[in-house]
Structures are given as C-alpha cells and as structure tokens.
Amino acid sequence: MTTYIIRRLLAGLLIIFLVTVITFFVIRLLPGDPIAVYIGQQAASGAVTERELEILREQYGLNDPIVVQFFNWLGGVLTGDLGESLFFKQSVGSLMADRFPVTLHLGLTSFVIANLLGVLMGVLAAIRRGTWLDTLVTTLANIGITIPVFWLGLLMMYVFGLQLKLLPIAGYVSPFEDFSKSTQLLVMPVFCMAVTSLAGIARQTRSSMLEVVRQDYIRTAWSKGLRERVVIFRHALKISLLPVITMMGMAVGMIFGGSVLIETVFAIPGIGRLLTQSIFNQDYQVIQSGVLIIAGIIVLVNLIVDISYGWFDPRIRYS
Amino acid sequence: MAENTTTLTGAAEAPPRVSEWRRFRRVFFQRKLVVFGLVILAIMLFVAITANWIAPFNPYIGDLANKSLLLPNSEHWLGTDLQGRDVLSRLMFGTRSAFQVGFITVAMAAMIGMALGVISGYFGGVLGMVIMRLMDALMGFPMIILAMVVSAVLGAGLQNVIIALTVATVPGYARVMNALTLSIRENDYIMAERSIGASNSRTMFKHILPNAMPPMIVLVTLQLGSLILAEAALSFLGIGIKPPGAAWGAMVNDGYRYMLTNPVLSFAPGFAIMLVVFAFNMVGDGLRDALDPRLRGTM
Question: Could you tell me which chain B residue has the CA closest to the CA of A200?
C-alpha cells in the first residue's frame, strides 16, 4: 500500500511537471507582448518611453532566453515564490492567497452538495424504478447534464434576483464577514456549479445501483429478512458507489472548469475569473501558477480516488 | 462483441448480420426520447445547411437607427439585438457555427485520438507509456481551461476554436481506444491473423479498428453534445468566433445586459444550445443501448 502511494505520488509529480512545462512554453508562444498590453492600460495616464519599456522587460526577465526564464520560474516555485503579476502589480502568491479561498469556498460547497444530492437522487430513482420519482430524477438529470451553466446562471439571476427579488444578484462576501449575506450570495452560483456534476452523479448512481441490486448477495440480504434501509444503504450502496467515485473525481475538474464561467457570470473574485482575466491580459506568471495549482489539486484528487477504491471494494488490492 | 463472429467468418454469417441490424433498429427506435432527439437534430441540421436561404434577414447587417432592441413582433419573431439585427436569423446562422465546430472537431479529435490509442495499446512499451502519460496529463485538466489557454495562444476565430477543442478532447479518445485495443488484442483471431504473417498495420486497420467502432461511435455522438456546449462556453467568455459572426454563446453574453427589458435576447440562444446538446445526448444514449449493451451506464 505504501509503495503504491509513493509510486502514484511520483507519477503525479511527473504529470504536474509535464503540465507546467507545456503551459510555460505554450503561453510564451502567445503572439502578443505582455508589456505592451500592460502599457496599453497605462498609456492614458502618461506617455511611456521605449527606454522605460525596455527597463520593464528587463525587470520582469522577459529578455532572457525562454529556457532561462523557465528555470528561473521553476526555481522560484520550488522556493515558494510564484513571481509577480504584471497586470495586478502584486505578487502572484498573495494574489492566489486572496482568490483561492473564494473558489475553495464555492467549489467545496458545490462538491459536497453535488455528491450528497446526486447519490441520494440516484438511489431513490433506482429503488423506485419505473415510478414517477424515477422519471422525475432521470428527466432532471438529463436536463442537468445538457444545460449551459452560464445560461442557467443568467436564468436564475433573472427569475430569483430580478423578478422575485429573493436573492442578491451577484457578488461575493466572505462568510467570516457576514455569514448570512455570504450564504445568500452563494445560493445561485453554488447551484449552477454543482448542477452538471450532480446530474452526472445521479445518473451514474442510478445505473450502478440497478446493476448491483440484481446480484445474488442482495437477494440473500433480502431473504434474511433485513429491512430495506439496511439492504440498500449497508449492502448495495457501498459497492455501487465504486463507479460513482470515479465520477466524483471528475467532478472536481468539472467544478474548476465551471468556476471560470460561474465566477464570470456572478462577478465572484475567485481563481476562475482571475485566470480568464489573466488570459486576456496575457499575464504569464498568473496563468502559469493558476495552471500549476489546478493541476496539483486534480492529481491529488485522482490519487485519493484511486486509494479509496480499496476501501469501497476490499477485493481491490494494491501491489 | 457480436461483430467479432461476422468479421471472422465473413459471408457464411450473413444472415445474423441482418438480424443484428434489425435488433439495432428495434432497440434504437424504441425510446421516444431518442426519436425526439433525432427529429431535433434533423431539423437543426437542415437549418444549419440552409441558413442562407431560409433566414428571414441578413444576420450580420442590422438597422441600428430604427430597429435596435425591438421586442419580438410579427416581423422579427425573436426581436432584434442592439445593432438592430434579427435574432432569429442570427440564431439560424449560429446553428451553422455550432455544427461546424462540433463535427469538424469530433472528426479530427477522434482520428488523432484513435491513432494514438491504437498505437500505444498495440505496441505498448515505452512509446505506449509516454503517449498515455501525456494523455493523462492533458485529461486531468478541465477541458474549458485547456481550450481557453490554447485559444489565447492562437487568437480568436472559428478555426482556432476547433483546434483548441481538438487538443482538449483528443485524450478522451486515446484513452478509450487504448483500453479497447488492449482487450481486443487478446482475442484468438488476432493471434490467428498474426500467425499467418499479417503486418502490424493490417492487424490494426483490418481487425482492431473495426472491432472498436461501436463504442467509438457512441463516444463520438456523446462528445458532439459536450463540444457544442464547450464552444458556447468559450464564445460566451469572448473567446471564439470573431464578430459579427453568429455564435450562440456570444449571443447569450450580448443579450444579458438587456435582460430586464428584453430577456428573449439571451434566453433564445441558451435554449437552442440546450436543445441541441440534449438531442445529441439522447441519440448517443440510444446508440449505446443499441450497439453495445455492456456500455450501459458507464459513459
């Protein structure tokens, strides 16, 4: 088990390294010049001479050969220095520290809701197969995986924010500042962020549950006279969650992907919005670090997923 | 896999082929939602192809002075946008962009991905490992962010969106193809083929690829839906087709500033996206049940 984890960690590090190398070199192929973009913003406030431009380029190390830039950056990362954002005039580390908790708050809430509700809905649909409940869950799940989340966000804003005036339209407040306001603001974005994964998980749970309840050992459990609750939750659910866990791992990626859209729609200052802005601003350092962090999280989640298989299905052994 | 027997013995097995087709038809057309999806896709495809002739107005040129932001009326069924362009016509041309991106991307990604998958699965070894590790690295990454970074490198435009989405979806095909190759390779008929001296490429093209087709067709259909969704998301963010080109995602974005006065502007294109993705998913589910029942619930 320990060797397995170590081997997987090393493989994970390799993947993270590959991703960062690829991003690093790819974004440097960007046709534009980040300094020029930055200057474009400054041009209104005062003239900038070619000499000042040159100084800026030198200062941010953009005149060095690409490989030198890469090793400078890598060295920085390993010592905890992510560089400085050209656009925000702030160290990337502190920028990330500002933005990351926001996405984490949003993403974690969505993740928990998507998993709990998704599994619950899937189980209900499976054990009441063919009833109105099953039809309802299946229909909702089919809509959930097809709806464009940014559009759903706008629809909700329109209905709940503008027409019914039940919820604040957009923005973000830290829960430590004003918990009730923060939660109100969170309802719509969390729902939008969770909906795709929720629907996927519900579908997956339903189908694997239907598969499992046909097994002999479930029939045995029934014939022993166990109550429905015990048969379903103790015997059937655990094993039918196996494929669902794969889905849960994928949900983390989906939620990060969704954060790009949802944070833009609801004006939430998180990593997703930062990344979108940085791509438009060609803010190299921010894009790189954002990608590095996301890759790291996804690798970690996949590792947790793989390890948890063993807990859900003792037949799986790691060697 | 039922097809295995037919490929092996050829003409002698001809009758089962017919019943195979019949079984496919029976399962496929059984579900009403699948038929509904097919009808939607047929209509949308028709609109996409004939947009030039059936669109009531020019989608690119509007009447800014007299027709800006009209509400739906008898002349403009879905109203007009800020520049006074007919929303229905833009929606029709948007169908064309969506289908273009969907079909071209799927074709490219499936070809590249299947090639990588079959090579890594068939030859294995260091080459296989390198390919699959690289695919894993790309796969772990959220598709939309990957596509965003690639589009940022290449700039806006339909062609670049297609390239970006291709890069983002190749790993999925490679992985499935790799797994399929590994399992198909173990069949006796492959060993028989090898023992009569067939070349590697013959084995791959004549035996492994055809046997991998059913699950691949399902994957492609389901992917079409998510690609159209991703294209919409990119154009919503402003990465995508250049203005004045019509794209559903960009239309949603344009419309949402006028949500209070004219919600149809952003509701209509969003609904179109949902409808087409739903249709592709339904048809994909139907194909999966009909082509390969073992895949039920796994994709």
Answer: B299
